[in-house]
Amino acid sequence: MKKFPSLVLLVFLSASLVFGAGTTETAKTEAAEAGPITLTILTTAITQKPEGPLAEEFFAEFMRQNPNIKLEVSGVPMNQALTKITTLAAAGSLPDVFVNTENIIGKLYDMGICEDLTPFMSAAELNNITSSVRTGSTIDGKLVLYPWYSGPNALVYRTDWLAEKGIAAPKTMAEMLSVAKQLTSEGDKRWGFGLIGTNDDSGQTRFVMILRAFGAKELYMENGKWKTDIGSAASIEGFKYFTGLKTAGVVPPGSLENSFNENVNLFAAEQIGMMISGSNSVGKFFAANPGLEGKVGSVIVPSAITSYTPASILGWSLNPESKNKEAAVKFMKFVSSKENAIKWVETTGRLPCSNDAIAESDYLNSSLFEGFIAGFQSMEQAPNAPFYAEVKSVLGKTYQKLMLDPSLDVTKEVQAAGREIQKIIDNNK
Fold first, then answer.
1. How far apart are CA 89 and CA 321, in angstroms?
2. Cα separation of 149 and 282, whole Å?
3. Pairwise CA distance, residues 33 & 17, whole Å
4. Is the pLDDT of residue 4 over 70?
5. Is residue 31 within 8 Å of residue 87, measured between CB atoms?
6. How far apart are CA 109 and CA 372, in angstroms?
7. How many CB atoms lie within 10 A of CB 11?
């Protein structure tokens, strides 16, 4: 586990912690928090760039303003977060505060390791969280994920490349493939589209956006029961399109191994012209290649039958066994404050989750964020099933298998995936 190197100060408390809402829980923990406190934090932020350095600033400033609190911060890559958290929970070593996202919230809540944060917040604080984000952070009426930022997906593209060809940004999946073909020039090592074909959260999430664009849902609740459309005609079309991007020759080599970071690097190196990505990619593009500023735009994820933008929320959950709950929530509020949220979006491209920060951020009012803002306003919550990660893994395994062997019968493979997912559903009734 990577320990955060600079967070070392610990001094004595001279004033008590004050929060917007007093509760019975407050009284229970007040005595425990009257002296020096060490908060343990597990985050993905310090493993990333450009997020890491700014997160370090926030953490150091929090300790400066709260000299009675020492932060012990550990980092974990996003694709390893679920495994890390469940392992720590099983060992009884879960930190006070740990990263949580819309993709894993159902699993972690089902494990009983996410404290309800509602009693620690005022009505004004709760209402300041944007509606779609608050919905995605709530289960059974409990706010179990304190939102820090959002990275809604959109189609990012090179505005200058499209201008060279005299073509507009695509609005449909058919147009996206057509534009990708026009932008591809293998001799120039330039490809139209960056395909994230890995069987991880990065690849699976982008596949689901294309799958749902064709009108098929990988998992959904109907009449109190979980169901899947995998195996349907619409789902087969979604698989054909996604895997067909590779066989059409519009993506760079190694698409099955190229996850998010590899595609960001390819975009920054001016080797791909479009990719479906979260708004955080913007900060990474410009950090790696400042010359791209003014040459990148975004549109909402193209549609086939419909358009789908999954909820994208990253924030914090509170360990119910924490002895320092008020200090932990104070930390969450600090890093998510309006001032810090505006700094965060300007550095990383990740959108604030609060109404006041969005309203006051001039940086978001640009064509660069047009697609991200449209996606943010229409985000849909991913299924809150504790077995959702298993379902997505089946999807990833199937699209990789089809891309590795284009001679396979797509219909048969997708129907087999549907049966496998149905077994997962049946085993979790």
1. 10
2. 14
3. 8
4. no
5. no
6. 28
7. 12
218-223, Cβ contacts within 8 angstroms, sequence gap of 24 or more? 218/383, 218/391, 218/392, 218/395, 218/421, 219/383, 219/385, 219/388, 219/391, 219/421, 219/425, 220/383, 221/383
pLDDT of residue 429: 85
pLDDT per residue as tens digits for the range 124-141: 999 999 988 998 899 999
Which residues make Cβ contacts (< 8 Å) with residue 117, sequence separation at least 6? Answer: 142, 143, 144, 146, 318, 329, 332
Q: Can you list the domains of the chain with their CATH numbers? A: 2-151+312-377 (3.40.190.10), 153-310+382-427 (3.40.190.10)
Tokens of 371: 């697609």
Closest CA to 21 of 326, 305, 286, 297: 326
pTM as predicted = 0.74
As a whole-number percent, the residues of the chain with pLDDT over 70 amount to 92
Instruction: Give me the residue label for tokens 């066994």.
Output: 321
